[in-house]
Every structure is written in C-alpha cells, then in structure tokens.
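Class prep. Write one:
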Amino acid sequence: MKDLIKKILKEALGVPEGILESTEKIFQSITEELNSLPKKVENDGDYTFYISTNISISDYVLKNIILHLMFKADNEKERVDFYAMGYQNVSQFNNKTYRIVNVITPETIEVTINLSGPEKTTKKDIKNYFKSDKSKLMSALSHELGHAYNLYKKGGSDVKSMARYRAYTDLYFPIKEVNDFIYNLYYIHSVENIVRPIEVASEMKSGNINKENFYEFITNNDTYKKLKKINEFSYENFRNELFKNTKKIKSFLIRIGVEESKLETDEEIVDELLKVVYVNLTNKSISTTMNMMITNPMEELFGFGIIDISKEEMFTKIARSFAKYHNDVEKFFKMEAKNFKYYSTKMLKKISKLYAYEIPKSKKQSINDWDSFHKMNKTGEQIETKLRYSKK
C-alpha cells in the first residue's frame, strides 16, 4: 500500500514512475557511446548510435534508443554546450477525429542532442562536457523522455494548440525583447509545461535534494527562476523596453520593407514592430495548421473543401481565431501577458509541491539555448509584414 501511495503521489506531481531511473540508465549508455566518436568532431557532424536497453516509465516500456548527436562549429563559443535536445515523433492528421494522431513506434524512441562549440572540438572535449554538465544534460534528457511518455499516454493532440507551439520555434527577430517574448510563449505552452516537474525532479535527484535543502534549491533552480521572470512580465514594461531601442528597430523595419513614412515617431516605430511580430506569429500558425491538416496532394492545390467541406470549415475557423486581433494588436499582447501570469503561477505552484516528492537514492530539448538554437537553424531570415490570411 505504501508503494502504491508513493506512485500515485509521483504521478500527481507530474513525475511518472521510473522516469528518473530510466534517465540515469540512458545517460550512462550515451556516455559509453561517446567513445566511438572520431577524435576530431566534424562541423555539421551527425553521429547516430543505436542503444539497447530495457526500461519502464510507468506502463511505457522502452527497449531501443536511436540517438543522434549533432555538432555545429561556432567559434564564438569558448566551450562545448548543447543548445537543444529533442524527441522525434511522427504524427498525422486524422480525417475522422480531426486531431493530430501520434504514430508510436513500440518500444523505440529517437532522441537528438544538438551540440555546438569551437571548430577545433574533439571527442575528449565532448566527453568532458558530458561529465561537467551532467546534471543539466540529464534534466534535459528526462524532459524529452517526459514528452515521449506523454505522447504515448495521450495518443493525439489538438491541431490549433500544436500549430501555435510549432510556430513559436520557427520565429526569431534581431531584437532581444521580442525574442524573449516569443520564448515565453514557447516556455509556458502546455507541451512544455507538462514536463517541467520532471526536469526539476531530475535536478533534485542529481543534487540529492531533501526537504531540508529544498527551499535553497528551488529558489536557485533555473526552471523556477525562468517561471518567476515570466510571471513578472507586463505589457507596459515590455513596450517601455522597446522604446529604448527605436533606432535599431526602425532600421530593421525599413530593411524588411516597411515604408519609412510610417515610422516618424517612436510610438509609430514600436507599434509597427508589434504589428510585424503579430503578423508573423499569425502567418506561421496558419501555414503550420494547413501543413498539419493536409492528407491529400489535391488539398494543397485546391483547398480542403474539394474533398471535405467540414475540414475546410475547421481550417477557416482556426485561421480566423489566429487572426482575430489584426485590428487591435495591442490587445493580443495584453492577453498573452495575462496568460503568462496565469500559467506560470500554476506551474510555480506545481513544482513547489515537489517538496513532498521522495527522491529515489542515486547510486552515485526544449530548447536550452534559445539564441544558439535559432542561429544554428537560421530562422528569422524571412520576416513578413502583411497577413497572408484576412479575417472576413
């Protein structure tokens, strides 16, 4: 009975049974596989390892891990670091349920770790990095295992929600305040929020955190501090920070095709920037929705209505909902500021309850770096200024 109560508590706190132990086993296997890397790691290197294991996350059994270790040279970096870690899954639109269905490969998952570092990076550098940053890497790995587990349990996803989530990762602006805002949108999305307790619990396990030192740990934890910062976001402060940088913003807007006559005052410059941000978030969300819903080449050429009028109506409804603030962009940002407050508060309370979580004794991705992720993936090179879908 005691073990059953512990299992129920872990699940309620958002930490599936066995996930931390599974993370340790997989991480150990990964460090062993690093021995087979070449002595000199190549720029754009893609190294694939096939790892056999036998682990369980609650009722989800895993026997095979396909690991992709990607490396990109960046001489602005002084040392090796990871800028993103991802769980790769296949999904498709179901024409009956009108949801995104996850295609689960039984007992096998595929994980990618994206590393960057100086061009002269060697196998030894990477091995040393995995030792020195073990806690952070294991936290990120547990995060990805959490995604795999949740997709296994849920089976599917809402089209609109997933379109928004994917749109966030496809946008990058040469303005820090805007990127921070988009990163906040990404960070508190339900897809990411659901696995936050797992990554924090992983760090608790790595640091042998107990009730006595929990307060010091949690108040210095990166996830907790990020959520606190999001919680303190306000539209007014966001706008005021942009006013400090209007010269750079104006130059950027002119470069992407905004008429200079629309940018005579600081107010006009900031307003136009916010409009451009909204336009790109909306266009990305709508185009992603369309790409996710296409199941027949004819739909791409002639629209969904040629095959399924209900599908066309669904797409139109989603597209209109994304574009509903096109006449009042400020309202969009204020609404998101409220969402920041609501969802970060909810998650702060949840991970604070990990105080009651009994960390198993140890025998001994997201995206980690937002700027590096976009730099390596070359996003932000096609910023748009006009909506491709007009609300009717």
About this structure: Confidence is low (pLDDT under 50) at residues 1-9. Residues 2-377 form one domain.
